[in-house]
Please model this.
Amino acid sequence: MTPPPMPPMRLSVNVDHVATLRNARGGAFPCPVEAARAAMAAGADGITVHLREDRRHIRDRDLERIGAEVAGRLNFEMAATAEMIGIAERLRPAACCIVPEKRQELTTEGGLDVIAAGDALRDAVARLAAAGIEVSIFIEADARQIAAAAAIGAQVIELHTGAYADAAPDGRPAHLARLRAGAAAAAASGLLCHAGHGLTYETLPPIAAMPEVVEVSIGHFLIGQSVFEGLPAVIRRMQAQIAAARQG
Ligand code: PXP
Model:
């Protein structure tokens, strides 16, 4: 019997690092809003931005402008703080992905501990969902965390692919097995499943082949590789990898 066709997978392009480059010179170039527009024109399915508490890359105005000016599904990565929830309620992006945030970290280091976060996280999810926003929680592929995410009312989990992507090639199969089990557990709990962190041309295809994973969010490699190939070419190549993986 032929297996059922896989649902499509979206590529959400994270433009934080365009803002990092802009901020290095304190001016307006390169503009993350322009990058978001170019990404959508090149075939991205959506745009991701992370407004951090310290505003080290994306700033409030970038988020507002991308939401207002760029036609594309906006995914707002944020810590579950009162400030960020207020911004999300005002701007109403299509989706919010709640991440843990530490001031000193270079990037989001680990998944959220949904069990330890308790009622505060449940309230944050409820407020965002009440604003009509699809709420995702960034977690490790751990069965207890996935069950807890479903229990507090999240609609989506984003599986943290960082450990897999950073592993040496011979260490990746074990990480992939864990991620596959996580994606299956999410689907069994009625959750949509996204994935992201550290993905590259080399590490994207096995993730794109997981039928439960319906969105990947990619930033650092995609923006970095654009220096060599150009943003449209990198997006087209990743979309081709996704299409090939989804066809089996
Ligand atoms: N998903 C989440 C929740 C993240 O925090 C990040 C990093 O901003 C990404 C995806 C994208 O990771 P990368 O920039 O390594 O592609």
